[in-house]
């Protein structure tokens, strides 16, 4: 069981690193927005590229934190049903949901997301108006990267849920607080 906990910690590490990176990206997003707003208001220097960059950074932050949100139990779920269930029942449901839904869906998202990114790169896809940002493949690459991070976070929780079921003396709650 200690091996599963160590493996869980190893799988959780990229999710935590991505969340820290996103914290810094929030600072960059704030700087870009402030520059854009002040530039538009006082110096007439705003551009479509800045607005697109704001959306790209915002989108990257949103998807790159999925794995961390799963680790921290900060994702959307319907707790009204699980509130009245026994602890072991909720853990079994969590294990089943990760194995049957989360991992297969994220594997498909990684597979098709990679093709999505590859096509954008090969075509030299950029902003449709021609006045925005080039290299659209960069933002599209966030989709398969986020899916891989979500798989990593899901597996970390799965292993911790197994430990919580088998050895509650080692771990009561599979989510970090």
Automatic annotation (TrEMBL):
Membrane spanning stretches: 21-43, 55-71, 91-114, 137-159
Signal sequence residues: none
The entry's keywords: Cell inner membrane, Cell membrane, Membrane, Transmembrane, Transmembrane helix, Transport
Localisation: Cell inner membrane
Topology of this chain in the membrane: Multi-pass membrane protein
Ranges where the Tripartite ATP-independent periplasmic transporters DctQ component domain occurs: 29-161
InterPro entries (alphabetical): DctQ (IPR055348), TRAP_DctQ (IPR007387)
Pfam families in alphabetical order: DctQ (PF04290)
Domain of life: Bacteria
Task of the protein: Part of the tripartite ATP-independent periplasmic (TRAP) transport system.
Assigned protein family: Belongs to the TRAP transporter small permease family.
Subunit field text: The complex comprises the extracytoplasmic solute receptor protein and the two transmembrane proteins.
Name of the protein in question: TRAP transporter small permease protein
